[in-house]
Amino acid sequence: MAYRLTMVGTGYLGATTSACMAELGFEVLGVDVDAEKIARLQAGDLPIYEPGLEEILRRNLANGRLRFTTSYEEAAAFGDVHFLCLGTPQKPGEYGADVSYLDAAIESLAPFLERECLVIGKSTVPVGTAQRLSEKLTRLAPIGSGAELAWNPEFLREGFAVKDTLYPDRIVLGVASERAEKIMREVYSSMLERQTPLVITDYPTAELVKVAANAFLATKISFVNAMAEVCEAAHADVKQLSLALSFDDRIGGKFLNPGLGFGGGCLPKDIRAFMARAGELGADQALTFLREVDAINMRRRARMVDLARELTGGSFHGCTVTVLGAAFKPNSDDIRDSPALDVAVTISQQGGRVTVYDPAAQENARRAHPQLSYGESALEAAKDAHVVLLLTEWQEFIDLDPEALGSVVARRKIVDGRNALDAEIWREAGWHYRALGRP
Ligand code: UDX
């Protein structure tokens, strides 16, 4: 049977999953309470920057497999399988995650569920949430236990969301019945036929896999950044250290790039929510190391500001500082907890004239931080700069010509916050080149 799918929540995850599941041949209906977002998606206008996604969205709108609505009633009537793709942001002023969007979605959808269906949670949640939502779902649905919950964490990376959705490196299914497993195996049959690794487990394990994966990745980044701190003290070179570590295939080189550290809508808030939840469960000692992971990460931002101030002679007053990059990472327009913008704002608060340029996140940055200046290109942003900071490693910044950039700045000084440039080339072109964790 070809199931009809709904995606409840059409943000990053929901929009991507909607378009990609339609691309796989399913009929898909996306649902969101945000009428403006729904209107844009229905018109083929993707509200986020994600390489390759708009094309897939438009193709599947045109072939009729994909539609969007604000009506939960319509979604309930349409879908055999409902995916929950809602955000779980950090609660203001505390570490825990706010899961109220998930609760609201179940409360809106469940009262219309009059025939058998499977509801699949994809959001990143504190362990224990799925069990609670499962009880709520059967309590509120007219079909009762005929509406069943499963948990299926996603691991998609921004910038690679299409590939990660169509070709996931593993599928994790937290299920409470054989029926749920059977439906999920059918939904993912094309991936399972390719021998994509599959882990079938219970709700709490499925919930934990996701936060454990993000905690591990964050730890790996903070590990190498802790080594960068030691390298700075010992006049050693963390880029070469990281390279040497990477050849040990037990360690590997991925997520071992020293620099300004992690940001974005997932890693920072997920490790904090994980600590908060472990505390509630009485297992807080197990995760105290994540507090260090977070602290190391935040210290990189402070170190970046210090290094930039050193290059402007001990004060930012009267100095123009160019910040290349506003997105939390390249190939994204996402500025949530962006290390680059954090540094830009701090320098501006300390009296510097900050001009930012980002190839995709410019408008988001301008809206969030109108007090900063913005240039329309790297060269325009760098005009008369006393120091240039490379804070998000977009390819176009890596490709910058040191001579061309040198001809517009006031002083040839650059801090490579992502260890992305070839130091030799820049020094040969007369630049004072500095990087985090390197002599
Ligand atoms: C992450 C997870 O990778 C993904 O599996 C999960 O589903 C959501 O969270 P994403 O937020 O898109 O995805 O970003 P990711 O590519 O993981 O990068 C996270 C941050 O770490 C970025 O700010 C990046 O710049 C930084 N990073 C990454 C480093 O500082 N060093 C590295 O070596 C790698």
UniProtKB/TrEMBL annotation:
Residues 322-423 form the UDP-glucose/GDP-mannose dehydrogenase C-terminal domain. Keywords: NAD, Oxidoreductase. Transmembrane segments: none annotated. One of its GO terms (molecular function) is UDP-glucose 6-dehydrogenase activity. It catalyses: UDP-alpha-D-glucose + 2 NAD(+) + H2O = UDP-alpha-D-glucuronate + 2 NADH + 3 H(+). Substrate binds at F155, L156, R157, E158, K210, F255, L256, N257, P258, G259, G263, K329. Pathway: Nucleotide-sugar biosynthesis; UDP-alpha-D-glucuronate biosynthesis; UDP-alpha-D-glucuronate from UDP-alpha-D-glucose: step 1/1. SMART domains: UDPG_MGDP_dh_C (SM00984). NAD(+) binds at D32, K37, T88, T124, E158, K269, R336. One of its GO terms (biological process) is polysaccharide biosynthetic process. Its EC number is 1.1.1.22. The active site is at C266 (nucleophile). InterPro entries: 6-PGluconate_DH-like_C_sf, NAD(P)-bd_dom_sf, UDP-Glc/GDP-Man, UDP-Glc/GDP-Man_DH_C, UDP-Glc/GDP-Man_DH_C_sf, UDP-Glc/GDP-Man_DH_dimer, UDP-Glc/GDP-Man_DH_N, UDPglc_DH_bac. It comes from the Bacteria. Belongs to the UDP-glucose/GDP-mannose dehydrogenase family. Catalyzes the conversion of UDP-glucose into UDP-glucuronate, one of the precursors of teichuronic acid. This is UDP-glucose 6-dehydrogenase. It comes from Streptosporangium saharense.
